Amino acid sequence: MSAPDLPIVLYHYVFSPVARRIVWYLNLRNIPYSQCMQPNILPRPDVALLGIAYRRIPILSIGRDVYLDSRLIISKLEQLYPPSASHPSISASTGDQKAIERLLEFFMMDSGIFRAAGTSLPPTLPIMKNPAFLKDRAEFSGGALGSGGKPIIEKAARRPTNITEVRDAVALLESSVLADGREWVLGTPGPMLADIEAIWVIKWIATIPGALPEEFISAKLFPRVYAWMERFTKVVNAKEKEHAPEKVNGEQAAERIFGAAFAEAEGTVDEGEIIGKALGLKKGDGVTVFPIDTGVNHKETGRLLSLNSKEMVVEVQGKKGIVRVHAPRHGFTISKIAEKASL
Ligand SMILES: N[C@@H](CCC(=O)N[C@@H](CS)C(=O)NCC(=O)O)C(=O)O
């Protein structure tokens, strides 16, 4: 069975800006999927049903393969759903454009803009007064504390410091990729992956009432960015209506996943790959795989199936069978727990 015939389930919640990346990507490429809506804090029993300990959102399954991290999810969708008349490409095509697309991805996700936006949420927001949410996010981020347990940034300086980072990102887009008045980042007729990479953090934070102080970040100060956000919103909202996904509950999602074929071949462990060599990893070893930036305490435990320069794949025991969990090498690491895994 080829990937386009396999069920896709997206585990997410509406308020997650990272999950929006996947919703937009799927919709812009007309890839059908079901969604399993999640609470915005732990626990997530629907995810636990699959045997998955990873705590972040989004998670996407294609058949019986489960993919962690929005970047790996997008690159897998690119690979398993190559451009066709029904699934048009939204990816950059030239070398320069590919560089812009990829650098925007790193810039928004890894350079601190996402973290800065996340910590710019106004204290007046109801969710910011919810002790359960605050406790959950302290565990998620590991607490932005310096040595001695004291916050690095003084409380009153925290939002201004973080908003400065967000403003820098907005100003960069205004004065670079959008400076010549083009409608979309790569000068294409419609929004592309490069637009998704550039917009997700800014659009999220800009639509939260009171998050961005108007005297520093506004449509008046950054007219091109705001007009582009409006254009983008119109297109993706229309697409979302057109492709309204089916909602499944955790049991239904698990049933679909455990009952499906695998989307990919099992793969092999490259014992010569840098981390494979350093840890002496072999196929079948018991391992844990986990992110190294946020949500680091939630480790996938299972049998190592595949390892290469791009990803690690672990066979995990779920409630009703096994799934193959894929994590990217970037931003994740692996630890050996046993020569042979017993599942
Ligand atoms: N690099 C990850 C980041 C994922 C992430 O930080 N997701 C946020 C939601 S936007 C999250 O999981 N927050 C904690 C939670 O919901 O448990 C990715 O690309 O998927």
Strand content: 15-25%
H-E string = EHEHEEHHHHHHHEHHEEEEE
Radius of gyration: 20 Å
CATH topology description of the largest domain: Glutaredoxin
Q: Order of strands across the biggest sheet?
A: 5-2-1-3-4-9-8-7-6-10
The total of helices stands at: 11
Largest beta-sheet details: 10 strands, mixed
Question: Class of the largest domain, according to the CATH hierarchy?
Answer: Alpha Beta
Structurally, the number of domains stands at 2
Instruction: Give the overall shape, derived from the CA principal axes.
Output: globular
Bound ligand species: glutathione
Distance from first to last alpha carbon: 27 Å
What is the overall pLDDT average?
95
Offer a concise description of the structure.
This protein is an alpha/beta fold. It has helices spanning 17-28, 45-48, 70-80, 95-110, 113-118, 131-141, 155-175, 193-206, 223-242, 250-258, 274-279, and strands at residues 8-12, 34-37, 59-62, 65-68, 246-247, 286-291, 300-307, 311-318, 321-328, 332-338.
